[in-house]
Amino acid sequence: MTIPDELRSALREFRAVRARKPLESAEASEFVDWHERMAIALQFLAGHLIHETDRVQARDAAARHREEATRIRQSPI
C-alpha cells in the first residue's frame, strides 16, 4: 500500500513537533506552546488518516493536548 503524500506530510509534521517536546526544566509557557502545537499537528493528521479508529484516536489525543495546555496555563506559578 502506498502512503498518500498528504498523509506522509502530516506524519512528518507530527513527528517533528513531537520531537520538540521541551525538557522538564523548561518554562511552563514552553509546555503550553508545545501542547498547542501537538494538538494542531494531531488534528491535521486526523484529517488524513485512512481508518476511522485512527482518526478518532488522533482527535482524542489532540483534545487531551489542548486540555493539558489549558491546565498548565491556569496553574498557579
Largest sheet: none
Helix content: over 70%
Question: What spatial form do the alpha-carbon principal axes imply?
Answer: elongated
List the uncertain runs. Answer: none
Structural class: mainly alpha
Count the E strands. 0
Q: How much of the sequence is in beta strands?
A: under 5%
CA gyration radius, whole angstroms? 14 Å
Distance between the termini: 49 Å
Following the backbone from N to C, one meets helices and strands in this order, namely HHH
Average pLDDT level: 96
Number of discrete helical segments: 3
Count the domains.
1
Task: Give a description of the structure.
The chain has 77 residues and is mainly α. The protein has one domain. The protein is 74% helix and 0% strand. It contains 3 helices and no strands. Helix 1 (5-19) runs antiparallel to helix 2 (28-46). It is elongated and about 50 Å long. It starts with a helix and ends with a helix. The model has no long low-confidence stretch (mean pLDDT 96).
Topology of helices and strands:
Layout: H1 5-19, H2 28-46, H3 52-74
Short key terms for the protein model shown above:
mainly alpha; 77 residues; 0% strand; single chain
Task: Produce a short descriptive summary.
The protein has 77 residues and is mostly helical. 74% of the residues lie in helices and 0% in strands. The protein has one domain.
